[in-house]
Amino acid sequence: MNLPIEQVERIEVIRGPGSILYGEYAFSGVINVVTYTNTNRGFVGYSRYNSPVAGGTLYRELAEGVTISLNLSTKRSDGARHDSGQDKSSNSGGLNTHREFSNLFAALSIDETLLEAHYMRNGKGDHFGIGDLLPPTSNSVVITDELLKVDLTHPFTLTDQLSAELQIDYSYGGFDMDNLYAAPTNYAIGPYSYPDGRLADIVYREERYDSNFELDWKNSNNRLLIGAHLAQVGVVDTWQRLNYDPTASLVVGNNNSPTQVYSGPDGLVKEDASRTISSLYLQDQYQWSNQLTLTLGGRFDHYSDMGDSTTPSISALYELDNKNILKAQYAEAFRPPSFNELYTMNNPVVNGNDSLKGETIATSELSHIYKTGEHSLRSTLFYSQFENLIYKNITSKKYENSGEGWHQGIELELERKINSSWKVDGNLSWIETHDKDNNHDLEGAPEWLSNLSLTWQPHTGHTLTAHLRYVGDRKRSASDSRYDLEGFQAVDISGNWRRVFSSDVNLRAGVHNLFDADIRYPASFDADIRYPASPSTYSNDYPQQGRSWWLRLSQNF
Prior knowledge:
- By secondary structure, the protein is mainly β.
- It has helices at about 20, 340-345, and strands at about 10-15, 30-35, 40-45, 50-65, 65-75, 100-110, 115-125, 145-155, 160-185, 185-190, 190-195, 200-220, 220-240, 260-265, 275-285, 290-305, 305-320, 325-335, 360-370, 375-385, 390-395, 400, 405-415, 420-435, 450-460, 460-470, 490-500, 505-510, 520, 540-545, 550-555.
- The protein has a single domain (about 5-400), classed as Maltoporin, Chain A (Beta Barrel), CATH 2.40.170.
- It is about 0% helix and about 60% strand.
- The protein has a 22-stranded antiparallel barrel. The chain has a two-stranded antiparallel ribbon with strand order 1-2. Strands 10-11 form a two-stranded antiparallel sheet.
- It starts with 7 loop residues before the first strand and ends with a strand.
């Protein structure tokens, strides 16, 4: 979402599969970003790589029971300069990492009725290129993602114990790829040359309607939620314009050939693709005793194009005493293939597969939570089994299901207040993964992850924080002969000073990746091409942004 921190009031995280209440895409967890709605504030900032940011929030009470709030921001960046290493065609050069972000939240509240609107526009360069073929370096937007979402929510109080809520949502969004380079300038394959590169203009738009009705019944020891959900999703516009023929083994035509237009049945995605989702769900939270709380839930979904899905969930929370809590949970989730994964066509990189099955996951957790006034410690054992994960098959150049696999591990979390001025937060995770099809570890999965933060607050309003992030070695696929990608450690520091010039002015500053660690994300690998003599991808993986600084100034009014 790329929101400046000044726009965010809090971030809520629900771990584990959340399909019961949140639907098909709450696969491994739910993150809810809550923006400010009742403050008046403006902010400006600047960071390395020519990256200005500005925005603010506005709140007004128009009449009794009627309020309006606006929350907006805009940001741009030339992006870090990287030498990517050798690409698929043995070319090398820099990257287009230019970025532009715009976000607008608006809310109108009339008594208990809430109308919200969110518009987001993210523009970026094409980074490592389409198909791992480097484009010319530039500072222009090539790929633009847009989303417009409107929500109407109205609660009903039926009795002292029974309430209801109706929510109606509309969303419209997709992406544009303007003058996208599918191959760099002076690209040649066989007898065919492309002095201007392989070029593409691509448009894709989806539209979605949602309605959700929920009953909430409470008494002294029980809370029962019953809900019904109906959604209609469809592709409303898609087309592409190319100077090459993606259906002819990538070698037909030349730069002087007429531009080819693919639309309708020959477009990027099947234009009439649609699905209807009908859902019923139930969750019962029962206070069995003063120490024991049980939660049982289930959800039934019918997809017009994928069939039926049933996802159960059960958890138990037991308070041993006022410091110790035990929690056990089992939950399942389902994710249907997207329209891109099902119906992409005429694409030289990856095409859809209408035989795809939906992804499923089943997760079991056992946690112990220890809390006092000064610190808390949480330890969690987890095991997840998944089926039909969707991935891009480089050899077949289409989306496919991976089969079965699992991951298991342990996570430790610590929050400790050392004294009135110092606080430490941290977590450590060990994860073991396994792909049953290949009898191998999952690609890209590190075995160790950790975070450690140390915060110093000498007095109210002044805070300094140092944060250490560690990511262990990441596994390659079973067919990839390269060594595992090395892990990294990165340190960030930040400070927050309130009332720096006046009582209403705040200053925030920090340095990202203080010691300029070499951070890389794993690049895919084509086993059909020998490495490193003829690399099929970036031989040195994908470099990420190094050391950078940022500065923000905000004022309440």
